[in-house]
Design goal:
Elements: H1 2-31, H2 41-67, H3 73-94, H4 102-106, H5 119-141, H6 150-173, H7 179-198, H8 201-214
Helix pairs in contact: 1-2, 1-3, 2-6, 3-5, 3-6, 5-8, 6-7
């Protein structure tokens, strides 16, 4: 019986991690049925619920793995991968044509995306993730800890909260008609972007410190 319990404790966190990929896939599929401002509003709200559910599993699997002391190599590899699929995929979708404000583009207004997220922002965020992943790989290959820093964890929490909130405002409040909603969305996006870039600095300073020690 103890063996069965221990086996389940090892497998449950990993199963929840894999479940996050399936929920993320459902999120992208459902979001495909929405088009700003009023096409597929129901699908947009379902997508919000799926994102929140997927983000919740991120905290559940990590909590259970630590509580039961069953942190595995599989979890260390797949957990951040699943996070990146969900978060980066959401950023890419939010910067896509289904959220463009076409009438505002024609009138020359500076705001052309209902989500406040533009392709160049996605490039910055992906670059940050690639840089951090590379730094962690180099540090671990040299025997240094490449685990997630507290800044990186804070960034993940902020993104997991802000992205569905932005989608909620876009789908249900139509920022093209309400300036206060548009301003709120843009403030949220810029805070998230700044924190995302800032959260990569501890990894850069850690790499510099390691290189100085090895000189």
């Amino acid at each position: 019986m103890d063996f069965v319990k221990q086996t389940l404790k090892r497998r449950i966190p990993n199963a929840i991690t894999l479940l996050r990929i399936l929920i993320a896939a459902a999120f992208f599929a459902v979001l495909g049925g929405y088009r700003f401002p009023d096409q597929g509003i129901l699908w947009g709200n379902i997508a919000i619920a799926l994102f929140v559910l997927a983000a919740t599993t991120d905290f559940i699997d990590g909590y259970l793995a630590r509580k039961w002391d069953v942190v595995s190599m599989f979890g260390r590899l797949m957990d951040p991968l699943c996070d990146k699929i969900l978060i980066l995929g959401a950023f890419i979708y939010f910067a896509g044509p289904r959220f463009s404000v076409e009438s505002w583009i024609e009138s020359g207004n500076l705001y052309t995306m209902a989500t406040g997220i533009y392709p160049w922002m996605v490039v910055v965020i992906i670059a940050r993730e690639l840089l951090v992943t590379s730094i962690r790989a180099v540090m671990e290959s040299r025997g240094y800890s490449g685990g997630a820093k507290w800044a990186g964890k804070f960034k993940m929490i902020l993104q997991s909260f802000t992205l569905p909130l932005i989608l909620l405002l876009v789908v249900n409040c139509n920022p093209a008609k309400h300036l206060s909603v548009l301003m709120t969305i843009n403030i949220l996006v810029w805070i998230m972007l700044i924190v995302t870039v800032w959260s990569g600095l501890p990894y850069v300073t850690g790499l510099v410190s390691m290189m100085r020690k090895q000189q």
